[in-house]
């Protein structure tokens, strides 16, 4: 995130200079809950892959359902809505780093060039995201279009994503090797989630800080495993819901910290001595109001989920188009600058 190598602060700790001591607690909770939902997806996927490696002797109920009655979405607003939702999911899958990147960048030497961090981050996030997305689009379309490859469709219907990936690699022994490698790669994402969740829990208050970080990380990993087992039959729903929800809050969170850093603190900087002193930090009302406005007025009205389609999202075809991320960002930029200016004028901090 913003200047971690100079500040030496973790992501949520840095947000205290915008959200205040108590407002940052809301960011901690969102970081743990939404990030945990993303980790649940990874665990469910790993279960399906391991089932495929074991020749399906390791039972895991997946049973994804493909509805052949769904009309074509390749024209008009239906296509637009599907495209917008697809972009939202892809943005959200990468934007999760916005609230945890500083947890790791703070270990960089303070004299590290900013342009190096920028381009390494850009390449490290965009290249794998785009690469995997393109492959996922091809495999996904093949899986739901029986006329393209009936074998892939049958594998997906019977065994979920694990079966689909198993049939995508050849020969079988090489396929199993690739699947085992994928298991470690997917679980690798959860390492960052668990570590950052432990940090977020400690920042909830002094009593939480007294508990060692590894205990919070272990508890978080345990809860993720339990939720993954309970939700293993609803992978598609979990993916579309939690990954999109991740983007609704991270886009507002990132823009608030960006405006604070580049506008309000561009000259005065940060007083690192008060990072843990509530009465020296901002009230945080402006940041919380901007976050909630972006989330509720933008995210809720523009979201397109299996359980709810917002009134604005519903304008894009029968299945809606997820525009919640874009609306959240716009509303945050409209609300935060004037609200923060007034807050600084009244409180002086």
TrEMBL record:
Entry keyword annotation includes Transmembrane: yes
Record's keyword terms, sorted: Membrane, Transmembrane, Transmembrane helix, Transport
GO cellular component, one term: plasma membrane
GO molecular function per UniProt: transmembrane transporter activity
Transmembrane segments: 21-50, 117-144, 174-193, 214-232, 238-260, 281-303, 323-342
InterPro entries (alphabetical): Pur-cyt_permease_Fcy2/21/22
Official protein name in the record: Uncharacterized protein
Species of provenance: Hyaloscypha bicolor E
């Amino acid at each position: 995130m913003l200047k971690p190598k100079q500040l030496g602060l973790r992501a949520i700790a840095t947000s205290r200079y915008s959200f205040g001591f108590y407002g940052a607690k809301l960011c901690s909770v969102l970081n743990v809950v939404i990030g945990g939902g993303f980790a649940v997806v990874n665990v469910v996927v790993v279960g399906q892959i391991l089932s495929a490696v074991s020749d399906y002797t390791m039972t895991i109920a997946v049973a994804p359902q493909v509805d052949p009655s769904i009309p074509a979405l390749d024209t008009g607003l239906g296509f637009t809505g599907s495209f917008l939702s697809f972009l939202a999911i892809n943005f959200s899958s990468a934007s999760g780093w916005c609230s945890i990147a500083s947890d790791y960048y703070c270990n960089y030497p303070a004299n590290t060039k900013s342009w190096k961090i920028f381009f390494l981050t850009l390449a490290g996030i965009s290249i794998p995201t785009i690469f995997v997305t393109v492959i996922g689009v091809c495999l996904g379309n093949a899986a739901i279009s029986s006329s393209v490859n009936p074998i892939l469709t049958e594998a997906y219907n019977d065994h979920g994503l694990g079966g689909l990936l198993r049939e995508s690699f050849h020969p079988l022994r090489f396929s199993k090797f690739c699947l085992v490698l994928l298991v470690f790669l997917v679980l690798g994402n959860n390492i960052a989630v668990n570590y950052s969740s432990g940090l977020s829990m400690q920042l909830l208050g002094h009593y939480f800080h007294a508990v060692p970080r590894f205990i919070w990380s272990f508890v978080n990993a345990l809860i993720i495993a339990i939720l993954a087992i309970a939700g293993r039959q609803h992978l598609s729903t979990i993916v579309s819901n939690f990954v999109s929800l991740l983007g609704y809050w991270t886009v507002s969170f990132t823009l608030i910290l960006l405006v604070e850093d580049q506008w309000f603190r561009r000259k005065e900087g940060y007083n690192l001595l008060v990072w843990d002193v509530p009465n020296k930090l901002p009230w945080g009302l402006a940041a919380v109001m901007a976050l909630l406005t972006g989330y509720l007025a933008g995210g809720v009205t523009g979201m397109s989920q299996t359980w709810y389609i917002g009134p604005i999202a519903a304008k894009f075809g029968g299945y809606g188009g997820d525009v919640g991320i874009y609306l959240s960002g716009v509303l945050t930029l409209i609300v935060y600058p004037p609200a923060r200016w007034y807050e600084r004028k009244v409180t002086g901090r």
